[in-house]
Amino acid sequence: MASGGNLFCDEFFHQVNWSEKGKSCAGVPIRQHFRVNRPRRITILLLVGTLLAGAFLFLRFREPHYEGKSLDQWLAELANTTLSENQKALKRSAVVNEQEYKVWLDDANTRHAHATKALRAMGTNTLPHLLTLLHAQDSRFKTELMRLSKKQSIFDFSFSLAADDIQAAVDGFHALGDLGTPAIPQLIEALNKTNYLAYDIFALIAMGEPAIPALRKLLDDKDFHMRYGVAMNLGFFEADGRCFVPLALERLQDEHKAVRQAAAQSLGRIGSDAEIVVPALIQALKDDNASVRWAAAKALIHYKPESNPIIIEAMTPLLSDPDPTVKRTIIMTLSQVERGTTNAESRR
């Protein structure tokens, strides 16, 4: 009878509502039953996860391919060979000699160029998958599955996080450049449906010059949040964002302080066109808002030594700035500028 009762409870608990907690079945409290069957629940969830992973692999074969590799594989290669200045500096400090560093860097650059070629060869066929990755989210089920997988050792699961998918999509749009422009209407539509923090902004910026008309329209949006979201990320690709310098300079005159601050920060990350940017940032040092002055002072660190005399002359009288944060930043900037610190060195 006990066995039959337990079988009945197994069926019952598949259908039980959470409001039934505190009751019992065949003399077994519901809370206790869930405790007893927890290993089974973990196994079922993991098996479901395995099936979903299988479905994912099946769908992967429908992705565009180039030289026998799928789009996701080429995106992974892009991610592995996209090197920040910090990564380069760390590698340089870890190797035995300069030749070893040069070999490593040349290899990474060659692989990155080949992955970029692959993306461009697949062209607009990549756009549906890139848009899907760009809007990826970690579902509650996936989050729970990841948590449960850590509590068992039978299966070895590898999960792709939404953040990784989003970064892969941005890298993909960066590689495509002008070939990604057919996706611009969808990116704009997604932004209008969500908010200024959406990753669609990164995809637009990743395309570079072909996206300038769309970005300029967003920078003219009546909502300062949208203008801020775009202005803050114009320097996301640092020197590769040189084409966005005119847009950032325009936003230095924005009516909202947060947008002006964001524009100054982006100009600092881009670090080019000193002949027109340095005078604009020096002018921003006189802004009524302390946050804008701070951003302008910090941005000036990233400009080349030939601009130093102008920067020193303009900033020295500002050492009496009433805001302590701005004053500290001006002192730091002057210190680095007087030493002739270059753009790349200041980012390490």
Can you give keywords for this protein?
two-stranded antiparallel ribbon; 348 residues; Leucine-rich Repeat Variant; mainly alpha; 2 domains
Task: Provide a short characterization of the protein structure.
It contains 20 helices and four strands. With 348 residues, it is mainly α. The strands form two sheets. The chain has a two-stranded antiparallel ribbon. The chain has a two-stranded antiparallel ribbon with strand order 3-4.
How is the quaternary structure best described?
single chain
Kindly state the percentage of residues in helix: 55-70%
How many alpha or pi helices?
20
User: Ranges with pLDDT <50 over ≥5 residues?
Assistant: 1-36, 342-348
- Total domain modules: 2
Query: What is the beta-strand fraction?
Result: under 5%
**Rg, alpha carbons:** 27 Å
Let me know the average pLDDT. 82
Instruction: Give, in order, the helices and strands.
Output: HEEHHEEHHHHHHHHHHHHHHHHH
Task: Report, as a whole number of angstroms, the end-to-end distance.
Answer: 72 Å
- Strand line-up of the largest beta sheet: 1-2
- What structural class do the secondary elements suggest? mainly alpha
Report the count of strand segments.
Answer: 4
- Main beta-sheet annotation: 2 strands, antiparallel
Principal-axis shape equals globular
